[in-house]
Design a protein that fits this description.
PAS, alpha+beta, PAS domain-containing protein, PAS-like_dom_sf, about 150 residues
């Protein structure tokens, strides 16, 4: 066999091995994200929802490819200076937690910059549903107010 053919066969094996490794990494990453109870969402620079894990997809159906400001915040235009994602995209966000109400859910969100496999700038959001805790806080607040009124009367 000529040397050029042997080199091509070797290169094909290397490419095939790299493709197999990349597929395994993708599948393992998807499995890891899908077993999380937290909502994991990737947002593109144009604020479009790029990816959601199973937990997020079970709550927010049909939002892939939609603008985050529309599906999460009910806005017609991109959020302005109150948007942590904008700061994440610009690299000025330090990964702090923030709280938002998204539709009927209270969520605690951690947002960090994320590089896509094509080197695109994304924001990775990990959201924890905090709705039950918020509802309990509200009940306790009402109970305290009621008890205060009862004590005064």
């Amino acid at each position: 066999m000529p040397i050029g053919v042997m080199t091509q066969l070797h290169d094909d094996k290397v490419v095939k091995a790299l493709q197999t490794d990349a597929k395994r990494i993708r599948e393992n990453t998807a499995a890891l994200l899908d077993c999380m109870s937290e909502f994991v969402v990737l947002i593109r620079e144009d604020f479009t929802v790029e990816y959601m894990n199973k937990s997020a997809a079970s709550i927010w159906k049909g939002i892939l490819g939609q603008p985050c400001y529309q599906v999460f915040m009910g806005r017609r235009h991109a959020c302005t200076d109150d948007c942590p994602l904008r700061a994440v995209m610009e690299g000025s966000w330090e990964g702090r937690l923030f709280q938002k109400q998204i539709r009927d859910r209270h969520v605690e969100i951690s947002a960090v910059p994320f590089k896509g496999y094509k080197n695109e700038h994304l924001a990775l959001l990990v959201m924890r549903d905090d709705t039950q805790r918020k509802e309990l806080e509200e009940r306790l607040k009402r109970l305290n107010e009621f008890m205060s009124q009862e004590i005064r009367s």
